[in-house]
Structures are given as structure tokens and as C-alpha cells.
Amino acid sequence: MQVVLTVNGRMRKAEVPPATTLLELLREHLGLRGTKCGCGNGECGACTVILDGEPVTSCIVFAAQCEGREVLTIEGLSKESGELDRIQQAFIDAGAVQCGYCTPGMIMSAAALLSKNPHPSRDDIAVALAGNLCRCTGYVKIVDAVEAASLTNE
Fold first, then answer.
1. Quick one: pLDDT at residue 137?
2. What average pLDDT does range 24-53 have in this prediction?
3. What is the mean pLDDT of the chain?
4. Number of domains making up the chain
5. 3-class SS shares of the chain: helix, strand, coil, % to 5
6. CB 40 within 8 A of CB 59
7. Hey, what's the torsion of the CAs at 85, 88, 89, 90, to 10 degrees?
């Protein structure tokens, strides 16, 4: 089946089997490997992308459900010049990257939060990141990074 959707501001078409997930479409058919596969059942958040403005775990969304919709991945956050988005830079500055495997999903959840709530409280940040698991940290630096990014949103 053919799926047509907008990914990172560009219309994309792909021929995929019917049971293909959005994660598989992004990684295997479109070559966007920044989105990670963690658990494969929507529990860890490593595969989080923004679909029509909402964070979703792309491993449990079928590609066919994305027909005509907009997807933003970690690759789409940075500027065309290669400059990092303020959230990406804040994660680096705060030392919130650790092994890095969960980082793209964390950043995408943070981006979705900051697009709706530019100045969240630390509790708001914790709630927004609740679906993203990290095995390397106690989450403090991650919350610090999102808070720092919100302060540069002025």
C-alpha cells in the first residue's frame, strides 16, 4: 500500500506492507534513523515523534493511520543550517544525554510540551515525560534541560 504524509515539512510517499508501523516507515523506508526502537510495544517512549502536534509512540501507530498527516521527528527539529534546536542544545548543555538512546524520544516529548506550554513547571515537565523511560539517569538533568529550554523560549 502507498502512504503519503508530510515528514519534517516535506511530503513523502512510501510503498509499505499494510502492517508497517510508523517507526518502521521512518527508519526503514525513509532512512530517518534518529527515532529509536526500544520496547516495540509503546511502553518506553524511545520512538516518540510528534504526529499532528501530539507526541505518539511510533512503534504502535500504523503507517496507514498517518495518511495525509504531519510527522515531526528528531531530524526535523534542527534548523536547515544544521544549528540545533534550543531543546537539543539544552539537553547537551545540561548533560542530559547519557547513553543517548532515549534522548530523541525525550526531546520530542519536550518539544510537544513546549509547543503547548512555553513555560511549564517542573511538575508539568515530569508529567509530559512520564511516558519516556531512561535507564541511565534519575531524570533530574533531563527535567533541568527542558526547564532551561523553556527559559530560552522568550
1. 81
2. 97
3. 95
4. 2
5. 40, 15, 45
6. yes
7. 120
**How would you list the strands of the sheet with 54-57, edge to edge?**
10-15, 2-7, 70-72, 48-51, 54-57
As a whole number of angstroms, the distance between CA 117 and CA 128 comes to: 10
Domain extent at residue 124? 86-151
The pLDDT score that the predictor gives to residue 154 is 56
Residue type for position 118:
P
Asked if residue 59 has pLDDT above 70, the reply is: yes
Amino acid occupying residue 18: P
Cα 51 to Cα 5, 7, 11: the distances in Å are: 10, 9, 14
Contacts 24+ apart (CB under 8 A), 31-34: 32/7, 32/8, 32/73, 32/75, 34/73, 34/74, 34/75, 34/104
Q: At 32, which CATH number?
A: 3.10.20.30
Q: What is the pLDDT of residue 152?
A: 85
Which residue carries 544549528 as its cell?
Answer: 83
Mean pLDDT within 13-40:
97
For residue 79, what pLDDT is reported?
A: 87
Residue 51 has pLDDT above 60, yes or no: yes
